[in-house]
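Supplementary Note 3. Input sequence used for the single-chain structure prediction.
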Amino acid sequence: MQTAAIAYRVADFLKQHPPFEFMDVADLVALVARGRVKFHEADEYICWQSAPHAALFYVIQQGSVSLWDESATPPVLRDIRGAGDCIGLERFNGAPANLFSAKATSDVVLYALYAADFEPLLQRYPRAGKFVVAYSTVTADYEAPGERPYPHQIFLSDLLRDRAPLHCPGSTPLQVAARLLHESGAQAIALTHAGAFAAILTSGDVLKWVAAGASNPRQPALNIVNPESVTVSPSTLVSDCVLAMAEVGAYAAALTSDGSPHSALQRIITIPSLTPAFGDHPVAILREIAAAPNVASLRALNERARAWILDNLSAPAAADWLAAFSDFVNRSIVKRLLALLHLDQAGQCWCFYGTAGRHELLTSIAPSIAIIGTSPVSPSLEAALAECGYLSAEAPAAAGLDEWKDRFSGWIRDPIRREMYRSRPFFDLRPVHGPELAFNHLESHIRAELAAEAGFLQLLANDCLANLPPLTFFRDLVVEESGEVTDTFRLESSALQPLADVARVFSLAAGHPLGASTRTRFEAAAGLLPAQQSIFHEAAGTMSVMLFHQARAGLRQRTSGAELPLPLLSRHDRQVIKSGFRSIHKLLEFTASWAWLEAV
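The predicted structure, written as discrete structure tokens, is reproduced below.
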């Protein structure tokens, strides 16, 4: 690097690869000015595990480098890196020494750059800093550049700039309150009691009252409102407000000074007031689903919901709340179908299980449905789900409560002969419609059976080790632990499934036998085993990353998203996912140790 021309040539190469692509050329030229070119022959070591970092870190210009964990016997291959990849970036994430030994797999040309010159650039270029973090840990907060803020990033206090809320006493005659709504042009009015907020009367409430016969217009306005009011604070995210309104079917929410119904009312949040945060509006979609006149309308609304989810799927951090919204969509469509097809019979408890039971179904795959009840099920439901635009719709698994108890007893007491490994998704069972008493009885029965069969958890944990993540991505190929090479990343079987399976084991150990999201289960595991909480927190972040990529691919291609062609992933995507592989390996190694069973 003795001439300015060579410095610019190196800078041009770096500019093609992250994290350098996020930096100005002038800064790159200055970075390489003190650098040097190094050559290593095949099988020659570049750096050694546990050795203190040298002053230089490396960028591979050509050739390939393998990373080895030499603390194991025999040494274990952990990664393979090629042109544009870096060696030694973990120092910028706090690692005091080399995490692995690096060895040239072929003849290798490296650009050696001074770490002291590079570190200030990570502060100047935040996107470069996020990429470097991904070399050591799973990061779920990266997103496409130049995008607008998304609902999971916007606080209500930053969005709402409308007038002070309209209000009147809850004892005000309904006719008078309706006139106030009409004359003001507002969508909602706050009702008070003894000067404090009590409820919200919306134009939708008045329309429902009229549709029901409009009796006694002089009754107190408080009589016809939704009894389940939603109150939120200014620091509430728009996404959380949407989910809270969807939970109770509210047309509006009250913004109070601290989020409680007893504090000062500041604003009334209606669907139109949230519209600036969205292209479409998620609550409006749910309201239209609830009133859809036929299956064709439900199909259009389902497609509209999936398009909206994809549009707002800006980053892995958005996957969790969008999965919760998708669950509202799925539940609402199933409930509406039951009403349209006259399948809703007394005493039946309708449940989701598997991915849908865990609130993790973002694509157009039909939710897996189970029924606790003895009434026969019409074969038309799966056909109707397919007509609504769902893929892979299957008939519900229906049985009476006693039969469900027998099934779970068999899986727990005799897991090998009863092929428990095929039935693990039923341990994600969650009620979504109908009376829940039968479900509660079933859950209590399962909890008692688990307490009586201590060895079941060990066997279930052992089954989790059947699916391993790939070793690495190299160029445009996926390198499996077995040495197999393919151009397709089997995301579901090699990443999502082991995460969900392990989380289920720890959830059972914590005494929560049935449906919960994988993230919620990892949070429970962190509480159960606080000394290992870093493993569970990183696994939860990995789950968000994998769900994000599954949903984005599945919604774009109208598939399950179970398999992902590697060329669709950016370099940043690949690096974050590769960090996820390390997280899954740590989780599986800890699960296989069995020592944790003695601590629970």
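The two ends are 59 Å apart (CA to CA). Residues 359 and 517 are 6 Å apart (CA to CA).
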